[in-house]
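Entry 14: structure prediction run for DUF6470 family protein. Input pasted below.
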Amino acid sequence: MQIPRIQISQQYTKIGLSTTEGKLSIEQPKAELNLQQDDTKVSMETEKSSLEIDSTRAWSALGSSKLIEMRDLIAQSAFDISMQNIAEIAQNGDRMMEITNHSNAFADIARQNAFKDRPVQVTAEPSYDNVDIQYAPSVIHTTVQDGKITFDPELNSPRIQYEAGKLEAYVTQKNAISFSVVGGNWDASI
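Run finished. Output tokens:
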């Protein structure tokens, strides 16, 4: 006798997945610096140098002085000569008063005065240092005005684009259970 059996068949669910990838794009535009620079200003002022050459004494020593200077030289020379003459007259008076001296003072004084040269000086005294030179160097005044830098940056935000990905799940095979009786026939009667 064959006993019937119960046969169970089971079918599992099969799931399929479909994906679409997400996309992320990031762009960063450069920042704009907006720099502005004012020029540095330099101003210079120069005082002229001066050179003064005074050759009056050199020309006077050569006898080519101005009339006023020549007049002053002659007056000074005449004054000096008159002072020398006063001194000589006083000396000669002292010589003539000396009776004890057995020399002929009057004849000696007459001989000296006869051949005496009394030059009047119309030129200045020659010297290596008769030309006066004065030099004042130039002076430079410098003024610097600093330039300025203006900095005004504009920051640009990043551009972000995101496309979300998709995940789709679907059933490719449904689950199922089936029962069936396999085997002999069984008649049972009571």
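Notes: The radius of gyration is 69 Å. Will compare against the previous run tomorrow.
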